[in-house]
Design a protein that fits this description.
The chain is of the alpha/beta class. The chain contains eight helices and seven strands, in the order H-H-E-H-E-H-E-H-H-E-E-H-E-H-E. It binds iron/sulfur cluster. The site of iron/sulfur cluster has 9 residues, from loops.
């Protein structure tokens, strides 16, 4: 079943993350889905919000590997994962794609329904980085391993962006690869009456400011596809 470990009120996939959908599948069936994707030419197997089904994934993987699965495994998460769960994945997942959404506990409680989110995300990202290090990209531009941090720029949260970028550089790694995302829009439970402070998209100038802040804090590796219009050409730094 789909679900998510977080309860973001603005979730754009509210029906599948909050309410759940899907069907039961055996370990062998899940393994077959993975090997089918690999045979179709997929570059990796990307598990989205998989925290609550980690045991089932770990049960299916041996079957998939026996069938020849060898492409990288991606753990794509909101960042609200326990270190204990992540330790089960040590040596198994190649790429971690965590969000780091908010630095502020009040916003985390109101918009993510998890007041302890900032500390949980810091601990989770530290564990992910300990396991796989900074993102590595091959000569064809494909990620082969490491951590890729995503940060959705939220309305009125520029200070969160600043603190998160500073922490990534100073406490995680100056080589941290960041995907700054501009696509926030009202969704889920957000409305003018319920959450007026986030009932709007971010302005282009806000996204540009977030990008500038990230650079000022020392981030040098960005997903350049998200670069604000009109800025200088930005080259993704290759792994060293
Ligand atoms: S972490 Fe992502 S998928 Fe989960 S509730 Fe928040 S926005 Fe939705």
């Amino acid at each position: 079943m789909t679900q998510c470990s977080l309860g973001c009120v603005f979730c754009q996939n509210y029906d599948i993350s909050h309410e759940g959908a899907g069907q039961s599948v055996s370990p062998e069936g899940l393994a077959a889905m993975m090997t089918d994707l690999a045979e179709q030419g997929c570059h990796n197997i990307n598990f989205v919000s998989p925290t609550h089904v980690v045991p089932q994934i770990l049960e299916a993987l041996p079957h998939a590997i026996r069938e020849g699965l060898s492409i990288p495994l991606v753990y794509n998460t909101g960042g609200y994962d326990s270190v204990e769960t992540l330790r089960w994945l040590d040596g198994i997942f190649d790429i971690y794609m965590p969000d780091f959404k908010y630095w502020d506990e009040e916003k985390s409680e109101r918009h993510l329904r998890a007041r302890d989110y900032p500390e949980a995300a810091r601990m989770a990202l530290r564990e992910m980085h300990r396991q796989v290090g900074a993102l590595r990209i091959d000569d064809s531009g494909l990620a082969t391993g490491g951590v890729l941090v995503r940060h959705l720029v939220m309305p009125g949260a520029v200070e969160d962006t600043r603190q998160i970028m500073r922490w990534l550089v100073q406490e995680l790694s100056p080589d941290t690869f960041v995907n700054l995302m501009p696509q926030y829009r009202s969704a889920g439970e957000v409305s003018a009456s319920a959450y007026p402070e986030i009932d709007r998209p971010i302005a282009p100038a806000e996204f540009e400011e977030a990008w500038t802040i990230a650079e000022q804090q020392g981030i040098t590796r960005f997903d350049s596809r998200r670069q604000p219009a009109g800025r200088r050409l930005f080259i993704i730094t290759r792994d060293r």
